[in-house]
Design brief:
Distance between the termini: 42 Å
Radius of gyration: 22 Å
CATH class of the largest domain: Alpha Beta
Number of strands: 29
Number of helices: 6
Structural class: mainly beta
Number of domains: 2
CATH topology of the largest domain: TIM Barrel
Helix content: 10-25%
CATH superfamily of the largest domain: Metal-dependent hydrolases
CATH architecture of the largest domain: Alpha-Beta Barrel
Largest sheet: 16 strands, mixed
Strand content: 35-45%
C-alpha cells in the first residue's frame, strides 16, 4: 500500500511517502525489492527511489522524504510504486495547480448527504460495500483489539451485526463475502470438521441476509462468498450464489461445499458461474493472478459472461478505524485495465474488505450503483444494475460519476459511425472541485496498454475513433485528491 497526501505540505516542508508492506501468513523474514517513481503529467520521470525491505512477521514499511524544488511547475503528478508484483498509482499535487472545475457551494440538504441522483440521467444512486467478512470466516474482530484477520470462525461479530452496523453508518447495501475455504473453521483444511455444519452455516448466512433486508426496507443485505486463495490463484467474490463452492473434503471424502470446484481452476469456476447465472467481482487483483492454462489475468468466454466487477481501489483490509480516517489505500487500476484489455466487460468497484467490525467506517470509499429512478432497492435490483455495469467507484461517498457515449449510459455496448461524444457527469454534495480528469481508452482483446485520450480538457469530448472495438472510462480526481472511476462504455466504431 502507498500512503501519500495529495495536497503539498507547508512551504519549506518535506513531503513524506510511506510504503506499507503486508504478506498475510508470513512468519519467516521476507525480502521485497521496491521502486517508487514520481512522474510528470506527460509521463516523464522526475524522481525515483529504490530499496529493499525485510518484512518481519509479514509486515513493514519504508519511508521516503522529498522536497519539491522551488522551480518545479505546479500541477498534478503521479506516484508509481512497484513492489514485487504489486503496482500502485497515486496522484499528488505540487504547488497550486489550476483546477479543471473550481469548487462550488455545497448542495442544500441535511448533513451533506450523498448525491441521490445525477441530474438528467434518470437514475437514483445507492452506496455500499461489496466485500467484507464476519465471524463466518476471518472477520468480525472487535476494533478495540483487532490487529488483522481473525482466526477462522473466532471473531466477535457475525452477519447480522455487520448489516446493522453498515446501515447505521449510512450504507445502503452490504455484501458479506466469507472465505469459501474457512467454513471448516480452518485457514488450511480440517478433515475432522463436519461438512454438514459447514454447508448449513452458509445457508444460515443466506437466510440472515434475506431476513435483515425484509425487516429493514431501504437497506439491502447480501451474503456471498470470496472464492480462492492468494497463492497461485486470487480472490474473487461470487455475489449471488445460494450454494457454497469449494474443494476441501473431510477425512471420509465428503465435500464441505455444496458444489465442488477445483482449487485455483478458474476456467472450471467460470463455467459453473456462467451455467448458474452467478455474478463475480475480481477482488484486489494482482498481475499474476486468475490464471488459465498458466496465463495470468486470462480471458475465457465463460468468465466474460460471469465476471462483472473489478476492485479498483480499496481501503486497508485490516483497518480498525471507525471515523473513515484510514490513510492506507491500495489501487488496482492497472490490473483491472489488463482484464479489460483481455476482453472482460467490467465496471469498477471500491470496497473495504473489512476484517475488523467497522463495515463501511474505515474510509469514505464506496461502490455506487445506479438504479432506475424511484425503483425500490432490492438484491435483485442491485444485481440487475451490476449486470448492466451501471456501477461506479468513488473514494468520496458524497460524490458520484457517470459516463455517457452519444447519450447512452456507461456499461453499454454500442455501434457508432462518425463522431463520438463522451460526456462525463459528476456531482458532489459538498461542492468539491475537479483537479484532473482523464478519459481512458483501451481495446478489448488487444492485451495492450490503456492510455488517456488526448485533448480532453472538459467534461465533454467529441472525436472520431479509429475503426474497430474500443472501451472508454472516466477517471476523475477531486481537488482533495480523492478519485472516482466511471464504468466503461464499449464502442464498436464502423
Amino acid at each position: 500500500m502507498l500512503e501519500a497526501a495529495f495536497q503539498p505540505p507547508a512551504t519549506g516542508k518535506n513531503r513524506t511517502f510511506i510504503v506499507h508492506f503486508t504478506l498475510p501468513g508470513a512468519i519467516a523474514p521476507h525480502k521485497v525489492n521496491w521502486t517508487l517513481g514520481l512522474y510528470r503529467a506527460d509521463g516523464s520521470l522526475l524522481r525515483q527511489w529504490r530499496g529493499r525491505h525485510v518484512l518481519q512477521g509479514g509486515s513493514g514499511q519504508a519511508v521516503v522524504h522529498w522536497h519539491a524544488p522551488p522551480a518545479l511547475s505546479a500541477g498534478i503528478y503521479q506516484l508509481r510504486l512497484q513492489a514485487g508484483n504489486i503496482l500502485q498509482h497515486r496522484p499528488v499535487a505540487v504547488g497550486k495547480p489550476l483546477p479543471l472545475l473550481p469548487a462550488s457551494a455545497a448542495l442544500d440538504g441535511a448533513g451533506m448527504a450523498a448525491p441521490a441522483r445525477i441530474d438528467g440521467l434518470g437514475f437514483d444512486i445507492v452506496y455500499g460495500n461489496l466485500h467484507s467478512q464476519t465471524n463466518h470466516s476471518d472477520g468480525g474482530g472487535d476494533p478495540a483489539s483487532c490487529r488483522g484477520a481473525q482466526a477462522p470462525r473466532s471473531g466477535a461479530f457475525g452477519p447480522d451485526d455487520a448489516y446493522r452496523f453498515a446501515q447505521q453508518h449510512g450504507l445502503q447495501f452490504l455484501l458479506v463475502s466469507e472465505h469459501n475455504h474457512m467454513y471448516d473453521a480452518s485457514d488450511g483444511s480440517d478433515p475432522h470438521a463436519d461438512p454438514l455444519a459447514a454447508r448449513q452455516l452458509y445457508r444460515l448466512g443466506i437466510a440472515s441476509a434475506e431476513q435483515y433486508s425484509t425487516g429493514h426496507p431501504g437497506f439491502v443485505a447480501m451474503y456471498g462468498l470470496e472464492w480462492g486463495v492468494i497463492s497461485g490463484g486470487g480472490h474473487l467474490n461470487i455475489l449471488n450464489s445460494p450454494a457454497l463452492l469449494g474443494w476441501e473434503r473431510s477425512a471420509n471424502g465428503e465435500p464441505f461445499a455444496d458444489v465442488v470446484t477445483p482449487k485455483n481452476n478458474y476456467a472450471a469456476l467460470y463455467a459453473v458461474m456462467k451455467e448458474q447465472g452467478w455474478l463475480g467481482q475480481f477482488n484486489h487483483p494482482g498481475a499474476r493472478q486468475f490464471p488459465i492454462d498458466g496465463v495470468p489475468l486470462a480471458f475465457s468466454e465463460d468468465g466474460g459472461a460471469a465476471m462483472a466487477l473489478c476492485e479498483v481501489m480499496n481501503s486497508n483490509a485490516f483497518s480498525k478505524r471507525l471515523d473513515e480516517g484510514e490513510t492506507r489505500h491500495s489501487f488496482y487500476e492497472e490490473a483491472c485495465d489488463k482484464l479489460l484489455e483481455a476482453g472482460y466487460r467490467l465496471a469498477f468497484s471500491s470496497n473495504q474488505d473489512n476484517h475488523c467490525a467497522n463495515w463501511g467506517a474505515a474510509y469514505s470509499n464506496r461502490t455506487g450503483i445506479l438504479l432506475p429512478a424511484a425503483a425500490a432497492p432490492t438484491a435483485e435490483a442491485l444485481l440487475d444494475a451490476i449486470r448492466a455495469r451501471h456501477v461506479f467507484a468513488t473514494m468520496d461517498k458524497q460524490s458520484a460519476i457517470a459516463l455517457t457515449a452519444n447519450g447512452t449510459m456507461m456499461g453499454a455496448r454500442i455501434d457508432n459511425s462518425g463522431p463520438l461524444t463522451l460526456q462525463v457527469h459528476y456531482t458532489s454534495s459538498t461542492g468539491r472541485g475537479i483537479a484532473a480528469l482523464d478519459i481512458m481508452e483501451g481495446v478489448p482483446g488487444r492485451h495492450g496498454e490503456v492510455k488517456p485520450v488526448r485533448g480532453v480538457n472538459g467534461m465533454q469530448h467529441s472525436f472520431t475513433p479509429q475503426p474497430g472495438a474500443h472501451f472508454y472510462y472516466a477517471r476523475l480526481t477531486q481537488d482533495d485528491g480523492k478519485q472516482l472511476w466511471s464504468a466503461p462504455v464499449w464502442v464498436n466504431q464502423r
